[in-house]
Design a protein that fits this description.
Chain lengths: 228, 669, 256
């Protein structure tokens, strides 16, 4: 399979791999957002879906590893490319006016990406690690506490802390920046560009980049404010 | 005075080239591998020759002073390339292209060469399309043509206003393929400093690596000079800054005759000089004359007021404008050939009617307002706006003009900060192309055996005036389709020669001469920069050997150029060192050669007591100021042999015989 | 034009003796520069001044001075070819600047474009990419088929032309935060991919050219679009997308 290796070790192959993982993560984010949004409307429904996602073997043992791989691949490849790109210019300009020809978001994907990476760490610490601990170390697959589903309660509890909420909100702002460039960039890297549909992709990307992070911010603030 | 042997094959003109090809000696593929050819210059002629020779199997070494072969100045040609394809079915043929070129050249070119050029012209288009050159096409997917000055058919193929670029990149692609295969060894940023002759044959060159300053020896079985024209002898021209005569001049000094140096094409539509700080002139395509009307004020006081900034061109009433080309040449009007249009502009400016802002008022108007209104009215009619206002018509017409010439108008506005849609463009003639150059025979060989010269660098197929879209044709014809045959005939004698060693006394001597000159420049602690001398030379050339020449001026020019040259060798100042990149040193060597060429140029112009094409002698004109040719005395090529000082150069004549075309006086009235 | 109201400027120029020298920015003053002068004419004046002061003039690449040869290559005030769109440095005029302004002038910066001297860089990496596949393998014979034998849709011919107008100046690389050469390479790949004459070798061509591009040490494209904005010929990002498609489809379909 040397042609696969050859393809993905080329500059275009790497871009394409970045784009594929990005498109996958975009879908995941949409799914995650949809479930979270349920928590605003119905605690019960949210609990049921959360329990299903947390215990279904297909989700847990097939999709979850793919997701983890996707996330890890995306940021590792992001770092690799960033290092390569930095090495491609050894002496920097004394005066560089990047704003003249490109957006801040597009030039700073590594920084918005790093903030998101930090956020994922926090998020894992908040939700994923306790979850793994309960389910696979303590072996409690019931999803219950005191005879009721625990997911909604845990969610609301986490959003008590205003500092955490602030960090989440800030991270979502960076996520928006990352998505603003990343969404349409993924299509470009995959070669999907045409005067007929590229303007549509760009519009959709703009909408997605604002709507999804804004939605997450809304959910976080909603739980924070309603619990007070 | 000896007679030059132009080696034109016998037989009827239409069969000469075919018969020639059938009877020359060939080199078999295995033997080609042991033959080296040096090509100096990578424009259309040099690039196409290098690529084709390498494809044939020769080992090619190509040299260019630029950082890549893709940057040669052929790239700047705008309009198009002629070919007798007759795709438009408008009566074009090989003969017509041949006829138009000889006539356009004012009957001063060699019939056999021009006919061959016309014959291979169609192959060029086929070859370029096969290479992926994106010529303009019509909606049916077939190639489009446009018409150019001086002809009655549409035979010009084009790629927007960048035909030269596209053709050169085609050549460069073909070269790149051979560079990748190792058949062309490319020497970028190298300048040829001299040719090396062994036993009377050109066997190599001395080159300077422009990055390290190293002087290198390169040997070959033949040397091809394709280094372009020498318009920069005028300092200001539309040539590239680096364009120079040096390669041609070095072979001239080693025995190649230099032909018709005085034939220079002054292009009528260039952006006028803005001041003394100017470094070069920019051409505006000839195509603008299709819709623009050229005028100056009819009253001197209006011209003076405009020059003083007191009046604007739009203030001059229609009745007070002098559309002098339409007045003098009613049948061709604004579309007279380049030489005629240029001289007419100079005549008006010299008479005090110019509108330029420099001290001599050198500029005339190229006005699109009539065309805008005409097209606007047409559009209004098409769209049924029969009572459209003047503003509406103007807006509609502006759209049409923008579609046709938008990029040129934009270029003009960027350079001058004037909006040509609302105020007339200012234009003035500028040096553009040199028809003269190194003398070559039918085989494109110079008077040095084994030394060839192709493209604009040779004295070429254009006689005393070149028609638009013919330079690209000639460059590619020479490189793709002529030289590869003729050089093979010569090289067939060299299959047993083996590699030419570079350690012989001839290389030693040539290298020493080159090094001595460089050392002189570096150690001469003069007081004036190279550009100082170049600008002075240019002024003399432009004022006295420019668009209109006379005996008195030419004699003065000869004396003045010699003075400048003498002062140059005493006072030139070249900073820096010889062992690193040193652009001033490069310029010094080139200007030294221009200072010699300039004098020979003026001598040639002085001796040619007639007016023909780009060469206009005031003494030889009609009362109305039209050119007068003297075919009885001057139907010849003037080929100069180097003898030291330009004043000592010896003239040789090649008589031009017109067996297929009758000599006539050109008339555009 | 009168020169009494010319510009007085402070220039900060990168000076570097040769490829081994470390190099540094130097400050110069020029005065009474005509606003009608081009930027390179201003540089000529600076050089004349330096020569008269007995100093080494600033080396810079330039040739045609009409925006087509692609030689000139200055990074002016933080932008390739300076402020202004769809122009090269030689087409930039001094009326774009204000009296008293400080102007930064630097060479293209990229590992694949090492500095030779001052503002002159070595762009031979572009030539090597071209030699790896930027051509149609057709010999000169004079016997190729007639130029009109294969009609080419006007839209394709026009797009191929637009891609082919690249002048190889390297502004795309200089402007890209990653020093990527994607716009340059994709322009050539696109030109040939759009024409029937080029399609024959399209897969092999894109693979070879991309591979050479990667070997030269250019960075990766991250679609910031800076190259398209700074390109003096307005070469579109469409070409990069087309190259991505060509490359990916060649990867799965070509023999190697």
């Amino acid at each position: 399979m040397s042609w696969v290796k050859q393809t993905f070790s080329s500059s275009i192959g790497r871009k394409f791999a970045m784009a594929l993982s990005a498109l996958f993560l975009l879908l995941f984010l949409l799914q995650h957002f949809a479930i979270n949004l349920l928590s605003v409307f119905s605690a019960d429904l949210f609990n049921e879906v959360s329990h299903f996602m947390g215990t279904n073997p297909l989700v847990q043992f097939a999709l979850q590893p793919v997701l983890i791989f996707g996330v890890v691949f995306h940021f590792v490849m992001g770092f690799v490319l960033e290092i390569k790109n930095r090495n491609a210019r050894e002496v920097k300009y004394a005066m560089n006016n990047g704003a003249a020809n490109s957006t801040w978001f597009s030039r700073n994907m590594i920084w918005s990406g790093l903030v998101i990476l930090g956020f994922i760490g926090l998020h894992f610490y908040d939700f994923w690690i306790p979850e793994i601990n309960v389910k696979y170390i303590q072996g409690d697959m019931s999803g219950m506490i005191n005879g009721e589903y625990r997911y909604y309660e845990e969610l609301v509890h986490k959003f008590h802390d205003p500092i955490r909420v602030g960090l989440y909100v800030l991270s979502f702002v960076f996520l928006a920046m990352h998505l603003k460039h990343g969404f349409q960039s993924a299509f470009q890297s995959a070669g999907a560009r045409h005067e007929k549909y590229t303007p549509g992709i760009k519009k959709l990307g703009g909408l997605y980049a604002i709507a999804i992070p804004a939605g997450f911010i809304f959910i976080a603030l909603y739980h924070h404010l309603t619990a007070i | 005075m000896t007679t030059l042997n132009s080696r034109i094959p016998e037989g009827p003109i239409a069969d000469k080239w075919t018969n020639y090809k059938n009877n020359i000696n060939l080199v078999n593929p295995a033997n080609k591998r042991s033959i080296d050819v040096i090509v100096v210059g990578t424009g259309l002629a040099g690039g196409s020759a290098a690529a084709t020779l390498a494809e044939l199997g020769y080992n090619v070494k190509a040299f260019c002073y630029q950082d890549s072969p893709r940057r040669a100045h052929s790239i700047a040609a705008q309009g198009g390339i002629n070919a007798a394809k007759n795709y438009q079915g408008d009566g074009d043929s090989t003969y017509r292209l041949f006829y138009d070129t000889v006539k356009g050249g004012d009957y001063r070119s060699r019939e056999a060469n021009v006919h061959r050029l016309a014959e291979v012209s169609a192959n060029i288009i086929d070859q370029c399309v096969a290479q992926g050159v994106p010529f303009a096409r019509d909606y049916g997917g077939l190639l489009d043509n446009r018409s150019f000055g001086g002809v009655q058919v549409s035979r010009t193929f084009y790629a927007k206003g960048q035909t030269g670029q596209q053709l050169l990149l085609g050549c460069y692609s073909a070269m790149s393929r051979q560079i990748g295969k190792g058949k062309i060894k490319m020497y970028n940023r190298h300048e040829m400093m001299d040719v090396v002759k062994i036993d009377g044959k050109a066997r190599g060159i001395i080159a300077r690596n422009l990055v390290t300053g190293e002087i290198e020896r390169h040997s070959a079985h033949a040397v091809v000079i394709a280094s372009g024209g020498y318009g920069n002898v005028f300092f200001l021209s539309t040539n590239a800054m680096g364009s120079n005569v040096s390669a041609g001049w070095k072979v001239h000094k080693k025995g190649a005759h230099f032909a018709n140096p005085c034939y220079t094409q002054i292009h009528p539509t260039c952006i006028p000089q803005h001041g003394d700080q100017q470094s070069k002139l920019t051409l505006m395509s000839e195509s603008l004359r299709n819709d623009g009307r050229i005028w100056v004020p009819a009253k001197k006081e209006d011209s003076e007021a405009i020059r003083a900034g007191k009046l604007k061109p739009t203030d001059i009433a229609e009745a007070d404008r002098d559309y002098y080309l339409e007045r003098r040449y009613p049948s061709f009007g604004n579309l007279v050939p380049r030489d005629v249009a240029s001289r007419a502009a100079k005549e008006r400016c010299d008479a005090g009617f110019g509108v330029g802002t420099n001290e001599t008022g050198e500029a005339v108007y190229l006005d699109f307002s009539a065309a805008i209104m005409r097209y606007g009215q047409e559009q209004a009619n098409i769209h049924g706006h029969h009572d459209a206002s003047q503003e509406k018509i103007q807006a509609l017409g502006t759209d049409v003009i923008e579609k046709k010439y938008g990029n040129l108008f934009q270029m003009y506005e960027k350079i001058t900060a004037d909006d040509p849609y609302t105020t007339p463009m200012k234009i003035y003639p500028a040096v553009h192309y040199t028809m003269g150059g190194v003398w070559v025979d039918y085989n494109l060989m110079t008077t040095i055996e084994g030394c060839y010269c192709i493209g604009e660098a040779n004295f070429s197929d254009h006689g005393a005036n070149r028609l638009g879209a013919s330079a690209l044709m000639q460059g590619l014809a020479d490189g793709y389709f002529v030289l590869p045959y003729t050089i093979g005939d010569y090289l067939s004698n060299d299959i047993r020669t083996g590699t030419i060693p570079t350690d012989g006394p001839e290389f030693d001597a040539a290298e020493k001469e080159v090094k001595d000159k460089i050392d002189f420049f570096i150690s001469n602690k003069g007081s004036k920069s190279v550009d100082h001398f170049h600008k002075r030379l240019g002024k003399v050339m432009w004022n006295k050997v420019g668009m209109a020449r006379n005996e008195k001026g030419l004699k003065e020019a000869i004396a003045e150029i010699k003075e400048i040259r003498d002062e140059f060798w005493k006072e030139v100042k070249v900073p820096g060192t010889n062992d690193s990149m040193n652009p001033e040193l490069e310029k010094a060597g080139r200007v030294a050669d221009f200072l010699e060429l300039g004098e020979l140029f003026a001598r040639d112009a002085l001796l040619r007591e007639e007016s023909c094409g780009g060469h206009f002698r005031e003494e030889h004109s009609t009362e109305e100021g039209e050119a007068m040719r003297h075919d009885d005395d001057f139907a010849h090529v003037s080929a100069w042999e180097y003898k030291g000082e330009p004043a000592d150069a010896v003239l040789h004549k090649e008589e031009l015989k017109y067996e297929n075309i009758e000599l006539k006086t050109r008339s555009y009235k | 034009m009168s020169t009494t109201n010319g510009l007085n400027l402070t220039l900060k120029v990168w000076r570097q003796k040769n490829d081994k020298d470390k190099g540094q920015m130097e400050t110069y003053q020029v005065s009474d520069i005509s606003t009608d002068s081009s930027f390179l004419e201003m540089m000529d004046i600076l050089n004349e001044q330096l020569i008269n002061e007995g100093k080494d003039p600033v080396a810079f690449d330039h040739d045609c001075r009409e925006g087509i040869c692609g030689s000139c290559s200055m990074y002016i005030n933080g932008e390739a070819h300076g402020p202004g769109r769809e122009i090269t440095t030689c087409q930039l005029h001094m009326r774009e600047f204000k009296n008293g302004e400080t102007i930064y002038i630097e060479p293209w910066r990229a590992k694949a474009f090492p500095v030779i001297k001052d503002l002159v860089v070595d762009r031979s990496s572009f030539d090597r990419i071209m030699a790896s596949g930027g051509f149609v393998s057709v010999n000169t014979s004079g016997n190729t088929q007639d130029a009109n034998a294969i009609p080419i849709p006007k839209a394709d011919a026009d797009k191929a032309f637009d891609a082919a107008t690249c002048i190889g100046c390297g502004a795309c690389v200089a402007s890209c935060k990653n020093s990527s050469a994607m716009l340059f390479v994709s322009a050539k790949v696109s030109q040939f991919a759009l024409l029937p004459q080029g399609k024959v070798e399209a897969a092999e061509r894109v693979q070879n050219m991309v591979s050479q591009m990667d070997d030269e040490g250019f960075g990766n494209c991250s679609n910031t679009g800076a190259c398209e904005v700074e390109c003096p010929k307005g070469i579109s990002l469409d070409n990069i997308a087309r190259m991505n498609r060509e490359y990916l489809s060649a990867s799965v379909s070509a023999d190697k």
